[in-house]
Amino acid sequence: MMPVSRMKELLRERGHMVEACLAVAFDGRPIPQRLKDSMQYSLQAGGKRLRPVLCLSAAALCGLPIQDALPFASAIEMVHTYSLVHDDLPAMDNDDLRRGKPSNHKAFDEPTAILAGDGLLTDAFLLMCRSPVAPPRVLRAVGELALAAGSSGMVGGQEWDMIFTGKAEISLDELRGIHAMKTGALLRASCVCGAMLAGASDGDLAAIGTYGASLGVAFQIADDILDVVADTATLGKPAGSDVAQGKKTYPALLGLDTSRALAQEQAETAKAALAAFSGQEAEFLRALAEYTVNRAA
Predict the structure, then answer these.
(1) Scanning 38, 63, 114, 284, which has the fewest C-beta atoms within 10 Å of its C-beta?
(2) Which residues pair with 98 in a beta bridge?
């Protein structure tokens, strides 16, 4: 497997590529300055850029030059960022910190944060449509991302999360369903969209989809564990906020040890899904799956 140091190096390099693209994403258009500042505030707040890097890497795995997937991958980060801006609002999770900085509505105000999220989501599709790839491939990938981000994916998952918050009981299947929509759908789509842009075969799309779905579960479990064991400085948001808000998490339902075992199981499933692939990109994606779990070990 690729050494962790090399995996982190590639993760940083590709993250920087995405950030450079995002830095000029709104140039040349008559956007109110305060709205533009608000959107860039959250876009440039840091993070590992996991979702766009997954898109870039899946595209490269299937033979597309990374640069050709960059606009679409950067648009995925815009969709992810809009969801964070809205999730932090008082009407939703009411979080004052995001990535160690004041949440958007604290740095600006609630109306501007709402509009910033709206702008990020809508402008993301403009950026996707600028992808220098065959239009049928772009159209297919746009449809896949819209499905994952919308009411039957990320948005629907957030609604279920709010419905179950504070309730006494939840089954493991219900918890899995919530997070498959809220977190897993966009992670899976990030991988699948990259492969679609590259014109991957149905078999390769299925394998990459399995990788992305399993990675999504492992990522969510690791996040739930970190909310319990890490401090605010490490998380970049208030530690223990999930428990304080009565959110349903894997550790709360299964305990830390069982949660860690389940996360590792999902990481192994993700790695196994790429058995037919070889080379740097496959090794990077396998190492990334293992790293996702180890950060909460």
Answers:
(1) 63
(2) 101
Residue 287 sits in a domain whose CATH number is 1.10.600.10
- Coil, helix or strand at residue 31: coil
pTM summary value: 0.93
- Total domains in the chain come to 1
Does position 231 have pLDDT exceeding 90, yes or no? no
SS3 for 192-233, per residue?
Answer: HHHHHHCCCCHHHHHHHHHHHHHHHHHHHHHHHHHHHHCCHH
Whether 56 has a pLDDT exceeding 70, the answer reads yes
Strand partners, 101: 98
How far is Cα 245 from Cα 58, in angstroms, rounded to an integer? 36
Question: If residue 97 lies in a helix (H) or strand (E), which one and from where to where?
Answer: strand 97-98
Helices (H), the chain: 4-23, 33-43, 50-61, 66-87, 104-107, 110-128, 135-149, 154-164, 172-179, 185-197, 202-229, 232-235, 241-244, 250-254, 256-273, 280-294
Secondary structure (3-state) at 89: coil
Q: How many Å apart are CA 182 and CA 107, to the nearest integer?
A: 25
> In terms of Cα–Cα distance, which of 215, 214, 195, 197 is closest to 205?
195
Tokens of residue 11, six digits: 């993760």
Tokens encoding 136: 């049928």
What digits encode the pLDDT tens for the residues 192-213? 999 999 999 999 999 999 999 9
Length of the chain as a residue count = 297
Residue 19's domain comprises 4-294
Residue entry with tokens 């899904």: 273
Structure tokens at 193: 């969209």
